[in-house]
């Protein structure tokens, strides 16, 4: 039994290739941007620490050299304010006039504590007690800036400290707000750049892979067309010396060898058919001549029997060759437009006398013309084999019903009888060559030939036993819509 499964809609692999390539590219670029972010952040911290360490030493030197009198706080405070305007990584908004006269945006403070830990000098926002408490509570290592969190401030301060000879200690603190804003802006730009590169990479990979796979698809479509119609067609090639071009050349070379093999097969089968048919035809002609000259007796019966045997041998030869070519997908078709309804009515009219003589009832149920494209000779022989099979195996007083109906883009032919049905043991392999029932006297090629013709026309065939008894064969063939002019002409007739 032959079955042709409907091919699922083909999906392009370009999406899958682009997705995996983009994921790999996105992961790689993310790692690169992460490394760049760490490098930039480290560089910003290094510059801030260098500024803090340098400025706190300058302020400590000023504090040591300035006499401890009434002008001490004013001198040291003004020097601290001047140093505050040289803060690294300041944003442009911090350069407004109102911020030039004081510590910019409350981001810098200067603190000097006495030897006993008391607040000796404060230059910065507010009274500075919360800052002093946070600074004195932390353990700040000399020449190594440290992060501290001041109560009431959302961002930490980076603080550097230097001791003075009189036992006091000076502290210079810088808020990390501007640094964090710089890093945040930089990371936003990094993310937008990364997203743009990922989308651009996806588009490039998708367009490239889709263009590449379009050549593969054209090769596949051409190969499918070759397998169903003509071995003389070749897949398209290109001038590019790449893998796809080599694939097309390889397929064309393979098709050349297949076409050559098919040609040799056709030559052999044609030669075999000619060599066997010619002597068989000659023998049959001589027997017919002898039969016409014989008046009576046993010689006449022997000659008739010999002619019948020759006819069966010729039919066996033709079917064997056709089945062999069909199974090799090499059956040659001369396609024309055929009305199945007209074909079946002609065959019923031809076989009805023989069936009536055997006590068989045949009925045709059809709803009008159904057109297909196929080989008229093979379809006539296929239908004849169906009727011959019923004549040979149906007992007297049985009925045969033939239904022809239209499906979506297909024609369905159903042959049902009320006979004994198929042998359950051979039902799974019913359409194979030389498969016969227990009481069959044939060569086991009738149904195999029917299956071969159906396959060659791109159809399907199934066989089963009906629940109430009898056999059922269903043939589905691709339908063909005739041109409008022919339809109008047929309707006018």
Q: Tell me the Rg in angstroms.
A: 49 Å
Low-confidence stretches: 1-8, 93-104, 484-493
Strand arrangement within the widest β-sheet reads 2-1-5-4-3
Name of the CATH first level of the largest domain: Alpha Beta
Number of DSSP strand runs: 12
> What portion of residues is helical?
40-55%
Q: What is the percentage of strand-forming residues?
A: 15-25%
Q: How is the CATH topology of the largest domain named? A: Beta-Lactamase
Q: What is the general shape?
A: rod-shaped
Structure described in brief:
With 493 residues, the protein is of the alpha+beta class.
Characteristics:
single chain; 493 residues; alpha+beta; Beta-Lactamase; Heat Shock Protein 90; 3 domains; 5-stranded antiparallel β-sheet; 5-stranded mixed β-sheet; 54% helix; 15% strand; rod-shaped
